[in-house]
Amino acid sequence: MLTLIMANPRATHIDHKIAQARLALGFERVWAALHWPLVLLAAAAALVIAGLLPMLPAWARATLMVAWALAFLWSLRPSFGLRWPSRQEAMRRVEQTSGLFHRPVSARDDRLPSDIDDPLQKALWEEHRLRQLRGLVDLKAGVPRSRWRDIDPRALRLPVALALAVAVLLGPGDIRGSLSGSFSFAPPGAQPELALDAWLKPPAYTGKPPLLLTGAAMAERLKQDPELLVPENTVLSLRVAGAAAPKLTFHELVDGDAATPEIADLKPQVKSADGLFQAGVTLTRPATVRVSDGGRELGVWRIALIPDAAPRVEIAAVPAGDSSGTLTAKWKVSDDYGVTGVTADIYLADDQDGGVGFSGPGIFEFDPPQLKIGLRKASPKEETGESKADVAEHPWAGFMVEMTLTARDAAGHATESAKHSFRLPERLFTKPLARALIEQRRRLILNPQEAGGVAEMLDAILTYPKGLIDRSGTQIAIAAVRSRLRAAEDRADIGAVIGDLWQIAVNIEDGASADARAELEALRKELDKALRQGAPPERIAELTKKLRQALDRYMDSKMKEAQKRLAEGQQQKEASQPPGQTVTPQDLQKMLDMIDKLSKSGNNEAAQQLLSQLEDILRNLRPGMPQQGQGQGQGQESPLGQMLDKLTGLMRQQQNLMDETQRMPQQGMGGEDQPNDGQQPGEGKQSGTGSLGDRQQELGRMLEDMMKQFGRNGMEAPRAFGQAGKNMNRAEDSLRQGDREQALGEQGEAMQKLREGARGMAEQLMQQSRGQQDSQGQNGEARGDDVDPLGRPLPGSVENQGPDKNMLPSELAMERARQILEMLRSRAGESNLPKIERDYIDRLLNGLY
After folding, report:
1. How many other C-beta atoms can be found within 10 angstroms of the C-beta atom of residue 744?
2. Which position among 519, 619, 628, 702 has the lowest Cβ density within 10 Å, counted as fewest Cβ atoms?
3. Longest dimension (CA), the chain
4. pTM over 0.70
5. What is the per-residue pLDDT across 482-536, written as a single tens digit (0 to 9) for each?
């Protein structure tokens, strides 16, 4: 029994080796049968991956595929007779591999004949089998062996495998495309031609036009000078169509054609789809740009950069102020491409009147005053200006401060000016009570902890108000401030009291006109903001009307104050002023009329300058009684201004008529526009055409009446009006005949002549206004005297024009121009566009180029 148990593991080991031998024999038979099918598949794959098969003609590909299919079927013949190895074959393989003789493994399956019943013989047989099992110690099934060398004695499989490896590693890489092309027998489509477009787009703030690198003009230019000079931060854009493997690289810019290393920090943004390769990069350093397609070079450009210099800024004069507490700072800025903004920073100076430092820390709790600096033009290359700010109420007023200006350009560069020290302007108070309140306010600003002492001083004022406080409202306000000061718990409460003291002092000093002055200043600032931001004409007209009403109320309050002072016998300094410095309410209203006209004509800059001039006058205005005969007739508008209003309305109507003429059908484009037999060209037209002719005739009559009015007023009408009248007459005839193109041409000429006449009238009106405003002195001069109300340079300001001046339009205007140009190009490319509209768009585009 023990012998049988020991034999079972040995028998299991032998069975395992026999199973391995059967697997090895089966794999060898399958491997041998797959030799030729695998060789044929590898050969076909090499042809497809390498892209050779799609290059063959359709008939050659079909023949080759049929031959390959037959060969592949023939190669599968051995696989049809495959059978799995038997147990006996596996045992013989184990015996042969293990070097055993006399078939000891096969003998395991031997059995005694069934008719032998002798126990002795059975015992001998079992002993024989056990001895054989004990001798089968190191059995080997053997690893599978390939017979490909016997099947393929010429080793055709090796060049096929090598061809497949080369196709995978060095092929075009588009396996899907090669596979679809191999089995596509349709006629091949036209191969896309190689197209290369490259251009340089300088930053918008430089005003430089884009450069097309692949044009004929650029090729001729590069023959003369192979190096291109463009502004810093120029964008290079590239587009390649029809290239197999396009590539964009950047190399160091050196003299000569020697090979240079690539620039690592210039990495373009690449996009490739549907055979179109696009790339773009911002050039921050000089480079040699190379575009290639595989081993073929498509383009090389040498690009150098113009550095973007930092802006320059300086404070032209030491900032100063006036008795109203207005800070005036004159400055000058410049930049190679234009300044985008200027800011002012104001700090407390260390050196004060009493020495270094302050008597208390309270003043450091307040934010610095703000001085807003606005540029008259968008991104000027050079500009000199003057900025003002009302700092009278600020707690720093009257103390020494330091100021610097910072200028910035579109590239992000910033430059700080030299530091200037000056005394921050403060308002001059003349009434004793107002001066006393301002003194206590200053005490609170420097030392908030002295709130108790300030409250005692207010107590003293309220104790003996006779002769000091004129109105009960003032006494109540001072008492309220005293109570709030005693109840103050933190710094915010002290700050509120400081503001209240200022307001009470101003009301005492200005009297009843304080509220009117505050309302007038608020409306002036709102109108200035609307003009600066280009608000709609309706909004500007509304604000002008409100400002006019507020000015009336303010002047009335000033007049009442002057009368009160005269009644009280107070001596006024204003009464002794020379007549040339006297300003009447009619003068101010006339300035508002001029601001209204300039804004309606679209010249917001001149209107803004005149508004600034009005601000200077109001700031320095002192109440006084008008002299006899002064101000009479000032409220009437000049005849030239009235005619300019009429001309503005006439031009608006002519422009509307041009728009309607553009929409009318052209002669010969519709049957209903054709004259019947026997009719004259001007007969049988639609009622709309006749109506347009009538309207044109009416506009011509309006222009004729205006020219006659010039003569009645003793003035000579501009010559351009006569030519405009002739153009209108010819446009009327064309409209009645249905000739739209001729009518549009004559109307356009008429509009041009009307604009010329309007420009001349505006110049005369501006000169008249300037002559009437000369009495205002330097503080009343506008800053835009070198241009007319329409924004054109005056004849005497030629020296202010030229390439060294900023003549670029604003960024908003340039963006709008780009949008209009893109829209015209898009419309011009539409195939179903009517001929009339296409001709009109072509004329517009021809005028732009």
Report:
1. 19
2. 628
3. 169
4. no
5. 888 888 888 888 888 888 888 888 888 777 666 777 777 788 888 888 877 777 8
